[in-house]
Amino acid sequence: MSHKNNPKKFALNMSAAQFTKFYILHLLHKRNSMISEHFKEEFSKLTGNWQPAPSTLLDTLHDMHEEGLLQRTEDYKSHEKKRQKVYWYRVTPKGEEEFEVLKKHYKMLFDEQIHILNKIMKEVYQ
Predict the structure, then answer these.
(1) CA 112-38-40 angle, 5° bins
(2) Could you tell me which residues come within 8 angstroms of residue 83 by beta carbon, excluding any fewer than 6 positions away?
(3) pLDDT tens for residues 19-32?
(4) What SS3 state is found at 76?
(5) Per-residue exposure over 20-35, b if at least 16 CB sit within 10 Å of its own CB, e if not
(6) How far apart are CA 44 and CA 40, in angstroms?
(7) Crossing angle, helix 54-66 and helix 16-30, to 10 degrees?
(8) Buried residues in 41-77 as b, exposed as e (16+ CB within 10 A)
(9) Interhelix angle for 16-30 vs 36-47, to 10°?
(10) Which of 14, 42, 62, 95 is the right S-S partner for 91, CB 3.0 to 4.6 Å?
(11) Hey, how many other C-beta atoms are within 10 angstroms of the C-beta on 19?
């Protein structure tokens, strides 16, 4: 997967969809199950203000379910009203394996970006 010189990449030199997939697997590795609202909250906590576009998040969750990385269970947001449906997502064994592969791959990328940012901070701000 080449990530060099692509102007459409996220700040960490990966697409927003790639980062969204990686962070979803991380969150579900830590927590048993989540709904889309929980993911939005966690992205906001991590970055302070950024979260994937709703379409990116929902498409990523759908794709991950189709790929067998996530299990999806239909439920209602309120059991009394039974109006708004939600999906609870859990990571599958295949998703756990994918997370371990992505962790190793992205660690190198994150280290590279930290190095670049440190150079910028030193050169420009000190």
Answers:
(1) 55
(2) 76, 77
(3) 999 999 999 999 99
(4) strand
(5) bbbbbbbbbeeeebbe
(6) 6
(7) 60
(8) ebbeeeeeeebbeeebbeebbeebbeeebbeeeeeee
(9) 110
(10) 95
(11) 22
Instruction: Please answer whether residues 64 and 95 qualify as being in contact, where contact means their C-beta atoms are separated by less than 8 angstroms.
Output: yes
Span between the terminal Cα atoms of the chain, in Å = 35
Contact between 88 and 96 under an 8 Å Cβ cutoff? The reply is: no
Tokens of 27: 């969150």
Residue 67: C-alpha distances to residues 60, 94, 110 (Å): 10, 9, 25
For residue 49, the model assigns a pLDDT of: 80
pTM reported for the whole predicted model: 0.81
Number of H helices, E strands in the chain: 4, 2
